[in-house]
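During the practical work, I selected for study one protein's amino acid sequence and its backbone structure tokens, as given directly below:
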Amino acid sequence: MSEKLSITIGQYSDRGQKEENQDFYGTMMPEEPQLTSKGIAIAIADGVSSSLSGREAAESCVASFLSDYYSTPDSWTVKTSAHKILTAINSWLYSKGQQNSDPSHNSACGMITTFTALVLKSTTGHIFHVGDTRVYRLQNKSLECLTTDHRRTISDNNYLSRAMGIDVHLEIDYRKIELEAGGMFVLTTDGVHDFISNREITEIILKNENLDDAAKEVVQFSLDKGSTDNITCQILRIETLPEKSADEAYNELTRLPFPPDLEPGMILDGYRIEREIHASKRTQVYKAVDTDTNNPVVIKTPSVNYEDEPTYIENFIREEWVGKRIHNSRVLKIYKQTRPRQFLYYVTEYIDGQTLRDWMNVHSRPDIKEVRLIIEQIATGLRAFHRLEMLHQDIKPENIMIDANGKVTVIDFGSTKIAGIAEITTPIERINLLGTMNYTAPEYLLGEPGSNRSDIFSLGTITYELLTGKLPYGSALEKADIGRKPKNLCYQASDQYNPMIPAWMDRALKKAVSPDPERRYSLLSEFIHDLTHPNTEFMRYKRQPLLEQNPIAFWRGLAIAMVLLNCVLVYLMFG
């Protein structure tokens, strides 16, 4: 029987001896599918009493985080989602605080609050922390603090060194922890932990089965110990973690059977098959017509060779998931199904054009401006992936379509890596599918994780090939062994194949396809800019001697020259 993530939580807050309670807290436990894709979020904040709007700051911070987090793309990691939201909230608090500040106070007196959040996703906990609210983990009858107070002591007085809304720039502590069923976490404001010991908190929690009662007793005990601040405590216990057997996961994936081989004239769920466009050992692609709208479409079906392979089926299903979440004119559009499906397949737009590979076979030496236009369009499509924390991982000429008007479209999402999905545990083995070797970034061959720079490597390789008809490292990557560092990766200057390429553009190409990802461009926009605008850094570059660029070519050329010179000398001596 599969389990879902579930928790029990107890919460309580009191204004204590103060006139107003400037603490604020909240919890969000969504239903599926967000329970799996985003998890459970718990947050606590303590508005700074010396600021003019501490209560409003705390409430805005918690409420905005809990609502906005669930509005971020499912493809984003928890860390990315939280950081983007908290950065935006901080900017708003700071701006609002500056507008509302009393001129008689210093600029720090605005909308300021501490903030701590715990997000539980799959089997991992994610902590985000600014200020002196805290998260504890209670295990083995011991309370361990998982956060660091951002305080500074001056003349026996404590001051916050970091808080939400205190500065336009925000530094967030982040920590990731593994979860265990039965594990407990405690979130408190300083009205608790400044007046009550870890041992006392632990004893109160362990003697109370009801967590609301435990939280209330912690608050009351803090008051009895002389707490002079607002007091808030949240206690949660993880009841179950998501767990699914391999059989359950497989049954879920195989809910729809594979379709049979499709022939022209056949009707599949309202789509009339016209012809087969492409077939490989992994998939079949057909042109079809939607009988309801009479519009041409493309149907992609899985190969029956993998009918018993759960990893393959999961990857195929994920292709449709990716396509439905990317809305960009340079990325293949996947249509939402309006009729019930009897088989496993998905439907995409039909592009009346050819692959970039076919286009290159006809245009062996395209104009540089034409190449730039193509590459800029591919980069636009890739940028849509990267904004959603996805890596295409298989950019090559065969996965780029170009129509008669020159419009470029990125296709095939079978190797796409989705950061947010990777955080969800599954009994299905996940395999990082490598793209075509000549276009695959070297770090993939070593089993290292990819990044935006990996897709930039592939794009740089395509750019080089469009301009020269060659590959920057010849066949060295194709011959490389997986798990070993590729040998003989010696960059071939592009202008030796195409003298129309300026030296500064060759340097941009060399940087894009550097074997070391740290030496590559980190952003697509930087690469595209340097393809069209001479980079002053590259203009100062002095070309390496041929001996350093290509030792083999140097010594081969020298040997040939020596042979010719000897022939001339022999002729002169005996001729």
User: Anything to note?
Assistant: The chain has a mean pLDDT of 90.
